[in-house]
Design a protein that fits this description.
Blueprint (H helix, E strand, L loop, with lengths): L1 E5 L6 E2 L1 H15 L11 H9 L4 H7 L4 H14 L3 H4 L3 E2 L3 H10 L3 E9 H11 L10 E4 L8 H15 L5 E6 L2 H9 L3 E5 L6 H5 L5 E3 L2 H9 L8
Helix pairs in contact: 1-4, 3-4, 6-11, 8-9
The structure holds magnesium ion.
Magnesium ion binds next to loops.
Length: about 230
């Protein structure tokens, strides 16, 4: 059996609008009434996220002072995973077609995400994605999981998946961050990084994925291409 394990946010879902709305909300909340701030454009903001500029630095770049930047980062953390904001997430172009292709090719498909159960279910329902991922192929965090850092939590999820899933002849992981690359490499799984998510190419290169591709469609095409040197 051949298997593809895909991350959720980055290869399938575009979170940029949610993250930007939360940024705007936090900036608005924390600025003093008389204070002049410089709200970043969405493009500027997202490029900073993609080049992994810390939240506090984003706050400073927006005109907040050091104490406010601390507050900003805290408020942002408390807000970004709350219900009203998940509604701003959208499907990435071509993602559903890519999932259909994988399904039609008979490749075993699993999702591995740092979303909590309810956060994943919310998106599954909204975008009709549960048809691709039966419960036994969903690796996410329990609703009460205490997160540490993605780069530490994701390899734990990968260990759980590898212990539980039926053995596969060959496995690829697809993801958009250092956490995905690290989780795969720690467990000897081949990994393709996509540029459609929250890290730019330069950031992805630092973690040496096997390949860097534009998006999930490109990843799937490479896997399915019969003449491909990328054997699954
Ligand atoms: Mg991701």
């Amino acid at each position: 059996m051949l298997r593809l394990i895909t991350d959720f946010d980055g290869p399938i879902i575009d979170v940029s609008e949610r993250y930007y709305r939360v940024y705007q909300f936090c900036l608005e909340k924390i600025q003093r009434p008389d204070q002049v701030v410089q709200q970043l454009s969405k493009a500027e903001f997202w490029q900073m996220k993609r080049s992994r500029i810390p939240e506090k630095q984003i706050a400073l770049n927006s005109g907040l002072d050091a104490a406010q930047a601390q507050e900003f980062a805290q408020l942002r953390r408390q807000t970004v995973h709350t219900e009203p904001y998940f509604d701003y997430d959208s499907l990435l172009p071509g993602a559903v077609d890519a999932l259909l292709k994988i399904q039609q090719a008979g490749i075993d498909l699993a999702v591995m995400t740092m979303r909590r159960v309810w956060e994943l279910d919310y998106a599954f329902k909204k975008h009709d994605l549960d048809r691709f991922f039966p419960e036994s192929r969903c690796y996410c965090l329990s609703n009460d999981y205490v997160k540490t850092r993605d780069i530490e939590d994701k390899p734990l999820l990968m260990a759980k998946a590898l212990a539980e899933l039926p053995p596969a002849a060959d496995t690829w992981m697809v993801g958009d961050t250092e956490a995905d690359i690290t989780a795969a490499k720690k467990h000897g799984i081949k990994v393709m990084a996509v540029e459609s998510g929250i890290r730019d190419r330069a950031q992805l290169e630092l973690y040496h994925p096997d390949l860097i591709v534009k998006d999930l469609s490109s990843a799937v095409d490479l896997i399915l291409e019969p003449s491909s040197t990328v054997s699954l």
